[in-house]
Design brief:
Elements: H1 3-15, E1 27-31, E2 34-37, E3 42-45, H2 48-51, H3 60-72, H4 83-96, E4 100-104, H5 107-125, E5 132-136, H6 145-149, H7 154-157, E6 168-170, H8 175-181, E7 186-192, E8 194-195, E9 201-202, H9 205-218, E10 221-225, E11 249-252, E12 263-267, H10 288-303, H11 306-327, E13 331-337, E14 340-345, H12 350-358, E15 361-362, E16 364-365, E17 370-373, H13 381-396
Parallel strand pairs: 3-15, 5-6, 5-7, 7-10, 10-11
Antiparallel strand pairs: 1-2, 2-3, 4-12, 8-9, 11-12, 13-14, 14-17, 16-17
Helix pairs in contact: 3-10, 4-10, 11-13
The structure holds pyridoxal-5'-phosphate (PLP).
Length: 398
Amino acid sequence: MNNTMQTVMDRGEESLLKTYNRFPVVFERGEGVYLYDSNEKKYLDFGAGIAVFALGYGNESYNQALKDQIDRIIHTSNLYYNRPAVDAAETIVKSTGMAKVFFTNSGTEAIEGALKVARKYAWLKDPSKDYEFIAMNHSFHGRSQGALSVTGNAHYQDGFVPVPLRAVFADFNNLDDVKAKITDKTCGIICEVVQGEGGIYPADKEFLEGLRKICDDKDILLIFDEIQCGMGRCGSMYAHELYGVKPDVLTLAKALGCGIPVGAFVTNEKASHALVPGDHGTTYGGNPLACAAVNEVYSLFEKERIVDHVKEVGQVLFDRLESLKDRYSCIKDHRGLGLMQGLELDRPVAGIVKAALEKGLILISAGANTIRFVPPLIIQEEHIEEMIKILEEIIADL
Ligand SMILES: *Cc1c(COP(=O)(O)O)cnc(C)c1O
């Protein structure tokens, strides 16, 4: 290993708080769907910075839009209006068919905001109760204490979220379980449309329809977390469109800015009145640079017909992984939609992910036993063949 790369890693271990076991690589630059490390070794990227870099690396038009915005103005705060934020909000309202947008700096903060909307909506009707959420087992919504409270993974919660502050957890895709747990203290139901970190589990249509009905009947809010599965990843602009079920609050992040940190929670008409001036805020959220990124992302999605492309190549990826599953008995299951797919093995996949990295292929896991495929959305069929070839070498060797 080249000294420079090793030196950076050593210095990182010295100065960065150790909350990650990082892979031993330093990426210096990217081109399309490839990344290059300090030694100019080339990697095919099927992780996209955890489902973020949808447009691939070095998209000229995207980079230019950011440079232009940097030269104009980067930040002003939310005490004033800024044109890129207004443009981006209008675009998102139009694209989602919802009513209002609040910009955040991350997915976690989008979740925090969404939870506040649902609590306040219930509180305005009856301030006498201590409200709670129903969330799903094996869900992931972020690492702040609020987002963790609805994240169905005790490993992430323990030591950080006292038990009484945790949501009530139900089994994903089990409507009876949700119904059994609803009380007059429930102020909202939150779920991912496709569970990401939990292992790539798409929701069932009947499940989402059932959640919608429960929330309508009880006049509580339904929150869909599309931070990972939204923005074209599943072969429609938003994953819930594939189901024909609309949330009251939608959360977006990851590919929303394609690398510039930005998230959003989006409210429908009835949820738009819960928060009033003074109820919520952020210094950076929706600043001109972040929103210039959002505007360019939506514009490029349209110009480059990204969603149609995902439908096509998503099917290719599906067929190739399905064929792999048929040929290797260590592959237990294959799940997913569009370019968000997972292969579940009969063993932990950490070794496969590591071996792939050595062979110049970036894969990420979702849970211990599932390989997650979330490449840049501009991926082509030839890249899928290249990935399958490397992966098959590794799996055949097991
Ligand atoms: C990544 C993710 C989050 C958290 O987003 P951050 O930007 O890391 O704060 C929340 N929900 C889902 C479904 C995610 O995939």
